[in-house]
Amino acid sequence: MTDKTSVVVAQVAGPAVEKGEEAVTTAARPAEPRSVKVRLEGVTRSYPGPDGGAVVALQDVDLAVREGEFVAIVGPSGCGKSTLLRLVAGLQETTSGTIDRHHSGSARPDTAMVFQDHALFPWRTVLRNVTFGLENRGTPKREAWEIAARELQKLGLTGFASAYPHQLSGGMKQRVGIARALASDAEILLMDEPLGALDAQTRTVLQDQILDLRKADPSLTCLYVTHAIDEAVFLADRIILMTARPGRVKEEVAVDLGAGRDSSVRGTAAFAKLAQDIWEHLRSEVEAAMQQESARSSP
Predict the structure, then answer these.
(1) 259-268 pLDDT, tens per residue?
(2) 3-state class of 271 per DSSP?
(3) Strands (E), 232-288
(4) Which of 21, 100, 160, 180 is the most buried (most CB within 10 A)?
């Protein structure tokens, strides 16, 4: 797939830009191109439909994610965003097309996933939830505990290491899920709407914490699914806009808000303008998805 990271809005499919519309702005390319960690080419995924036909969730998706890149995927409900993550994770198989994960050759796992639901084990303490993946890989107990404690400290959960999930708030449970994924030290971090079920204030705090994690580890490679445009703009280097089902890549948006951005960027004119521009490009797809849902529910 052609590298479009230098373009703030690069149209991949859909109508051409009309004469007189605002010109596309550009962002500087990195001095040294980073290696591709995962590449999708012509990926299609379909499921058996209720009427015996096929429901196509994703169709002909091309996407490349480079090492150290944080890529957000935004699109209407039902467009295959979560399916795409599950395909990259190897939890599902493509109907057609290829997914290549470029492993460094180390003992690190390919992927780690943070689900919409925290998916914690209720009988394990916070610490032992975080060590779960490490234990399965045969990491010595003391080393696993040290790694888990470090990740819990990053997310402000040190004082809750001995607590059980039922004793935590929703936001704390999600932080444990993130800590567990980070503890695995996977090549690619996959995050499927990890903040979607949280209240606005908690979501804002966790967005800040995820941004801090990015700054602390510039090599972190992440595919991040969200419905929230402002969240994608705040966190991502690049945003992939998806069409209504069947999900295709409609546009790519490079976020040029500075590598050292912090929470104050939310109040800037550049942030507001980029979020509004993305909504204008996505609105027709959201409306199309609503029409699909309405037609499906009609008698």
Answers:
(1) 789 999 999 9
(2) helix
(3) 238-242, 249-254
(4) 180
